[in-house]
Amino acid sequence: MRRKNKIKVSGAVIVGLMLVILIVIYIIVSSVMSTVRHMNKSSTTSSSTAKASTSSSPSNKVGEKQSELPSQVLDLTNWKLTLPVNTNHAGDPDEIAQPELATFSDSQHFYVNATNDAVVFRAEAGGITTKGSSYPRSELREMTNDGKSEASWSTDSGTSTMIVREAVTHLPDQKPQVVTAQIHNQTDDVIMIRLESNKLFVEQNGKDAGDLDTNYKLGEIYTVKIVVQSNIAHIYYNNQLKVSVTVSGDQNYFKAGCYTQSNTSKGDKPDAYGEVLIYDLSVSHM
Description:
- It contains 2 helices and 16 strands.
- It is of the alpha+beta class.
- The protein folds into 2 domains: about 1-60; about 65-285, Jelly Rolls, CATH 2.60.120.200.
- Strands 1, 2, 5, 6, 8, 9, 10, 11 and 15 form a 9-stranded antiparallel β-sheet that branches. Strands 3-4-16-7-12-13-14 form a 7-stranded antiparallel β-sheet, with no helix packed on it.
């Protein structure tokens, strides 16, 4: 009887050992399955991330220089463009009016910058000039009636305002000067916003009418607001009134862009250039 009991105890031990082995196998299999599921999940996440990265790549192309038109950055409805070239296009030098201006860009003189937030205006010292000037320009001229008619307003009637947010990014080497904004009339400029080296100021009748910034650094973005009312032009620089001058007359209009104040006779090479970036531009008459 004792021998039989001993055999039964040994059988119980064997059964117990088998249960332990099964439990260990279960734990190992569960661990392996968990690891596999985790790896699959990571793979799916990586795949999704890769897909997201791939799908976002077209939007990155929006930052390329030619991916937008200037008219998509600035409201050019009531403007006309003068370029420092003379091709078979209308104008001498070329002029781009509406509706053509709405879909126009020029990779050398009038295009959207790489970050898609400004329009680049560039004019080389060797560029073609208008008949009334010896200096080249890539410059907008104020228009009305959706660009069909030339703007013409009086300094003593209502309030005329132009606001331009811009930066000068390059100057000619020998005569480092550009004009970035103007009031003009039928014969000559009335006032100009002018940069000479690092001095940004208002010019009137060929003379310095007041400083805006005496230590301007190329590339710095600033805002100029010109307000004309009751024969006085008030010029604000970064929201501060800096200069007020007397103006009078009819047939006035605003201009903005890059009017390079040099040419080859001043010692600059033909490819020396002025460059202005305009980020925002608006005009109102009240």
